[in-house]
Amino acid sequence: MAVEFSPQAEKKFEETLERYPNKEAVLLPVLHLAQQEFGVLSDEVLEYVAGLLALPPSRVKSVASFYTLFNIKEVGRYVIRVCYTLPCALNGAEEVMEHIKKRLNIEVGETTPDKKFTLLGCECLGSCNTAPVMQINDRHYENLSLEKIDQILDSLE
Amino acid sequence: MEEKILLKYIDIPDIQKMEVYQKHDGYQAVAKALGEHKPGDIIELVKTSGLRGRGGAGFPAGLKWSFVPKDSDKPVYLCCNADEGEPGTFKDHLLMEKNPHQLIEGIIISAYAVNCHQAYIYIRGEFYQPRKVLEQAIKEAYEHNYLGKDILGQGFHLDLSLHVGAGSYIAGEETGLLESLEGKRAEPRLKPPFPAAVGLFKGPTVINNVETLSNVPHIILRGPEWFKGFGTEKSTGTKLFGLSGHINKPGVYELPMGILLKELIYQYGGGIIGGRKLKAVIPGGSSTPVLTADEIDVAMDFESLQAAGTMLGSAGVIVMDETTCMVDALANLTRFYAHESCGQCTPCREGVSWMEKIVRRIEQGKGRKGDLELLLDICDNISFKTLCPMGDAALGPVVSFITKFRSEFEDHIVQGRCPIKKDKSIKGRG
């Protein structure tokens, strides 16, 4: 199946172009859009983006691989990012991580066999006042306890 | 109760909505700035106020603006740095999520001051909720003609766009931010030229932190003398202090510059969790040199902290109690910097990773004789040998941790194990 934006994404792309003086500058917003649209920024998707912006595919891949929020490898439907930088570490990030590892029966960096969850560690999420913190897809979950983590994971379809 | 500036209206329900914000002095500063002042006057007012950058470096904001050439043939840009990523820092998060119009108002006035017609807010990709709030607020500001063409009929036009980052600490370094905004890897640029001369899309560019810009409407509305009534002579105004770590009441506290660190921790932060003993404090975000429990009688302003051998930085205060293994804490921070190095400069790319490995092996009881000298030697070879301040940011904690807690590092090496009774459990605060 050929990679192509839906009409809605196409419209958003056109609108985004207007906000920047050149096409190259639109790369980050378009990669965000492509990730929303296709889930993973596979080589095919990156080539499609390169075509849209008239950039070499290698440039696009170099940029996509620089930033941690771009998924250039296959991930589950829910990407769990447990913050493990110092303020969270002082407040129990290790226990949070161990609990999720055990519950999902995967190691950090792995995806559950049903492709539902990917577990990652991440650096400071900028919510140190509510540590320990994790992010699942777009959303932050704060002041975590073991019970709370179970409730959150149970609530995800 | 101390008088507040930035957080004065933070608890007003729906203050993020235009109609509520307008009822609380909202956009009066824009009307005043555009109606009564010339751009140059605004720069002078902000200079007089003594407002210094709240992102970490503390550079005077008005002076920064005055470096923008008045006769540029290229468009001038304003970038609001909302890539808040320094561990221990979460104030901009709060300002954007709770009072987005205050920031937008600051951006409009600042853009007017430097003759800029296109501004960007570079917000870190992880901040989903603040982004949604800002998107809505920007939309409202356009609808009320505070943004767009001929603002309030004063002939000034300004477009404001949100640019969403994608997970990178170094994109918070100002030239890294510009690269990222131009659609590239966030690899910092060689300076000079400084952004005020050659910045975004090669145009003169001003880059200011969220908190810095949020102060601007208040200075315009109430005057620089009023603003100078807060804080110290050289560190004027209030500051948003972030308290995190082993503290009873973590959070953002707005207090005058110059408040004592001790007061901040015990009076405002409610002291150490579980009534334990304080061991160490990082006063201004993870890159600022650590202070011991005996060094907290220090005023939280740019000069006093510098005199104490550290920095105010982003004023993210990370508190560590007696159960903290300083080697483990340092291993955590060096991992952060090793991960976030953009990889352009060899001393930072290689050196910081080496530091991480060495500190980690000491923590695991596999440290070797001479490891501490080796670490300090690596620091020496990174210092001032990189394009951007990241290399020096990474070694701030290394040098200070080893200097101030040397015996703890040596005990790890000599005993071949961690001698600290650590508590790494989840801290509930009830």
Characterization of this structure:
Chain A contains seven helices and four strands; from the N terminus they run ααααβααβββα. With 157 residues, chain A is an alpha+beta fold. Chain A has two domains: 58 residues, Arc Repressor Mutant, subunit A (Orthogonal Bundle); 78 residues, Glutaredoxin (3-Layer(aba) Sandwich), CATH 3.40.30. In chain A, helix 1 packs antiparallel against helix 2, helix 2 crosses helix 3 and helix 3 packs across helix 4. In chain A, 39% of the residues are buried. The model of chain B has no long low-confidence stretch (mean pLDDT 96). Chain B contains 17 helices and nine strands. With 430 residues, chain B is an alpha/beta fold. Chain B is globular and about 75 Å long. Chain B folds into three domains: 211 residues, NADH-ubiquinone oxidoreductase 51kDa subunit (Rossmann fold, 3-Layer(aba) Sandwich); 84 residues, Ubiquitin-like (UB roll); 90 residues, NADH-ubiquinone oxidoreductase 51kDa subunit, iron-sulphur binding domain (de novo design (two linked rop proteins), Up-down Bundle). In chain B, 42% of the residues lie in helices and 12% in strands. The chains are: A alpha+beta (157), B alpha/beta (430). Chains A and B meet through helix 2, helix 5 and helix 6 of A and strand 3, strand 5, strand 9 and helix 13 of B.
